[in-house]
Please model this.
Amino acid sequence: MEGWKTGTILRGIGSFYTVREDETGELQTLRAKKKFRREHISPLAGDRVEFTPGEGEEHGWIESILPRKTLCLRPPVANVETLVIVTAPVPEADLLLTDRQLARAFSQGMKAILAVNKSDLDGELAERLRAEYAPAGVPVYAVSAARGTGLDALRAAMEGSLCCLTGQSGAGKSTLLNALLGLELETGEISRKIARGKNTTRQAELIERDGLRVMDTAGFSLLEPEKNLPPEELKERYPEFRPWEGKCRFRECLHDREPGCAVAEAVQAGQIHPARHERYRILLAEIRENWRNRYD
Ligand SMILES: Nc1nc2c(ncn2[C@@H]2O[C@H](COP(=O)(O)OP(=O)(O)O)[C@@H](O)[C@H]2O)c(=O)[nH]1
Ligand SMILES: [Mg+2]
Ligand SMILES: [Zn+2]
Model:
């Protein structure tokens, strides 16, 4: 529309949104038009919007939200392109969680990167994960947020893409985000809880700095349980299975324990990592169980 500008929402506080204007790079304070509430749409950090700028002290208005490429619900953020999954040797890496997060990223068309933090404590984990995830095309970076090692390579992989850190509590997401961006966000879940008090809702914020664009979501789980996924859809989220799709004896093969399974043969032949396949079978069993009970 005439006179409308475009920009990206960096954060929302109450009913005010901070938007970076594409053209000028300037920050604008905007409110959302009432129609969004009627339509039950909330503008989110990461959203691409059209707006009319304010004049003088007057705030402007968000007029429309452009179609979202991706949407995360916990916390609600829009247009994340790359999921940076943070793992560490301590607390022991929960790779089932990693695989769930990977599957969620792929189902949305996001890219994924594995950052293996605390490599100062154990350098082996990154090597092990590299072997497990290479067939899926997932790059693995060994880093130490505490020592500052490996950060340049990770930064280079994140550059130019709207990224979001996720991973189990204590893996070092907050510490890593601080190290990557040169910030001082709270680290440690306990201090965060105390600082937040009971009733403050924390909102995600898009931080743009030195060529990086990262959602500050390090305090969130990001993993919304996916209800009622048809079991046959899980395998589509495993890039390393793809070369073998359609080559199993049974057309409906779920790559579990069926005879003549081409994926199982690829595991035998060392082309798919057995640990990834084992965990796939655990997730598959869980999804089948939920699917059976979907009308309960
Ligand atoms: N040894 C070591 N400890 C780290 C590293 N990164 C973070 N930590 C520690 O791990 C704990 C959890 O870090 P935090 O960033 O709060 O984890 P989060 O829950 O994933 O956000 C803190 O005590 C950090 O000091 C690292 O690279 N090496
Ligand atoms: Mg944290
Ligand atoms: Zn199969």
Observations:
- Confidence is low (pLDDT under 50) at residues 189-200.
- The chain has three domains: 5-65, 71-215, 231-292.
- Residues 274-292 form the longest helix (19 residues).
